[in-house]
Amino acid sequence: MVQSKKQRYLFMAFCLVPTFLMFAIFTLYPLVNGLYYSLFQWSGSSSAAEFIGLENYRKLFNDDIIPATIWHDYFLVITKIIGIMILSTFFAVALTQMRIKEAPFYRIVFFFPNIMSVVVIGILWMFIYNPSLGLVNSGLEFLGLEGWTRSWLGSERWALPSLVLPSVWAGIGLFMLMLMGGISNISKSYYEAAEIDGANGWQQFWKITLPLVWPQMKISILYIIITTLNGSFIIVQVMTKGGPNNATHVMGSYLYEEAFVKYNFGYGATIGVMILVLSLITVLIMQYFMRREKVEY
Amino acid sequence: MKRKQGFWTKIGVRIPLVLWSLAVLYPILWMILGAFKSNAEIYSNPWGLPDTFSFGNFFDAWSNYNIDISVFNSLIVTGVGALLTLVMAIPTAYALERLRFRGNRLLFTLYISAMMIPMVLGWIPLFFLLMQLNLLDNIFGLAIVYAVSQLPFSIFVLTSFMATIPKSLEEAAAIDGMSPYKILWKIITPLSMTGIITVTIMNMIQFWNEYFMALIFLQSENNYTLALAIDYISNETQYTNSWGTLFASLVIAIVPVIILYAIFQRRIVKGMTEGAIKG
């Protein structure tokens, strides 16, 4: 390349510096500053910020709602992993290995909820759960199970489990496609060899498909963990706002309430630090447990 | 699999597939039908077809619930945000992919790892930062925040697209005396158009749908994006029970996404699965 060193540096700066400045101002600085805020008691007006050291963290450990919010978050993580992985694995295997003519139709339909707004999904499901008009209760009545009908989102016991279904409903398509990508990369010769050895479809699934698609499953599980811990509060905020009686508060919705409804910004930041630490620890632990020697045949 | 599958196996596999298709399509379809029903009809016949198709709910949402303003705001935020993301992401993606400099790997890793960090913590300081910059309760401020939030994903997808462009083209252009700025603008940008379009569609859907940052960073009703306006109507509906209006606004929100999905289905699917596999 015929250009002076100075020109080269100038071009490099043109490419990198403005973007990095924006990234630093609107992503890095707020994250680091969040850690700093957690050491203050602050209601928003600049004069009233008071340095209180680790007091917010002490409050965090003594706050009765915090353990419940953590449990709710992990309840959603676990139930979503189970629900999404079982269904999307089944659908992925069915659509790749069963020679179903209308497979593209299912792919297009199943994926669509993935690009719907959480607000739309949440409101739609609020109506599905609506005690008098909703599909769930009407369906139960139709089946003659009147005793099972209830105000799903209004019950402390059932509100949180009721949030799982919309999340699974909205998530299946993406993970199904990721697994389908993995399955279609598996060489046909393995199945042919298994066929000759007399392995049935079920055995082929456990011995060939599952081990060879494990990398995609691992990524899917980690992705569900990350997106749930970083985003479950959105559907909570739309559908229940943490209620009834805190029964569905997750860490993020509790942070929102403390910081932006009650104006305890310092304490909110402390909850944010907890979310950051817990999600990093969870991802590291899961990566450790799910490491598994790459299978090669 | 060579083995012939029995008739019953094929039926058995199809039952869950058909049921799940119904579970996905029926609520969406029903929401669209509900938008055309009168309120009385929603109560008497919530899950069936409407007697007559009326656009009354759409007019109500459009003029009495300020949906017109929020559609406009959402369009601005989506357009400005997507454009800004490209302006920031294309040069950086090119530099990270093609230029050799110390810290290249590190910078790339920094951007990519930001995709895995929960941003909730940053939203509190960001709130005050925007306040100081006079960008709080401002749709352009929100557009900037959106653009930066999608930077890591956009850089990630664009670098992998640019890696497929042969280096010889740039080298030839440089020998002909083309400046690197021109090479970026006249050669790299047109050649990575596939990637740029994929990234832009993904970002636009993301910005059009986004709810939580808008909830935090916008306050006055005149600045509400569509997601906030719908949430507002939904909260009102608990008292007014005007479900028809709510459904009409949901339909207004979802139609542009359906159209984009119909046109760009393959790109969207590819963009999302690749975005997820970055881990």
From TrEMBL, chain A:
Keywords: Cell membrane, Membrane, Transmembrane, Transmembrane helix, Transport
BP-aspect Gene Ontology terms: transmembrane transport
GO cellular component annotations of the record: plasma membrane
Superkingdom: Bacteria
SUPFAM superfamilies: MetI-like (SSF161098)
Leader sequence segment: none
Principal location class: membrane
Membrane-crossing segments per the record: 9-32, 74-96, 108-128, 158-179, 221-240, 265-289
Entry membrane topology: Multi-pass membrane protein
Annotated protein name in UniProt: Carbohydrate ABC transporter membrane protein 1, CUT1 family
A Pfam family reported for this protein in Swiss-Prot or TrEMBL: BPD_transp_1
Keyword Nucleotide-binding: no
Family: Belongs to the binding-protein-dependent transport system permease family.
InterPro entries: ABC_transporter_permease (IPR051393), MetI-like (IPR000515), MetI-like_sf (IPR035906)
Limits of the ABC transmembrane type-1 domain: 70-286
Subcellular location: Cell membrane
Lineage of the species this protein comes from: Bacteria, Bacillati, Bacillota, Bacilli, Bacillales
TrEMBL record, chain B:
Topology class, membrane: Multi-pass membrane protein
GO cellular component, as recorded: plasma membrane
Signal peptide (from-to): none
Domain ABC transmembrane type-1: from-to ranges: 71-264
Assigned keywords, A-Z: Cell membrane, Membrane, Transmembrane, Transmembrane helix, Transport
Entry-linked CDD domains: TM_PBP2 (cd06261)
The organism of origin for this protein: Salimicrobium flavidum
Family: Belongs to the binding-protein-dependent transport system permease family.
UniProt cross-references to InterPro entries, sorted A to Z: MetI-like, MetI-like_sf
GO biological process terms held by the UniProt record: transmembrane transport
Annotated Pfam families: BPD_transp_1
Protein name per UniProt: Carbohydrate ABC transporter membrane protein 2, CUT1 family
PROSITE patterns: ABC_TM1
TM helices/strands, residue ranges: 12-36, 71-96, 108-133, 139-162, 183-205, 243-264
Gene3D superfamilies: MetI-like (1.10.3720.10)
Keyword Amino-acid biosynthesis: no
Subcellular location: Cell membrane
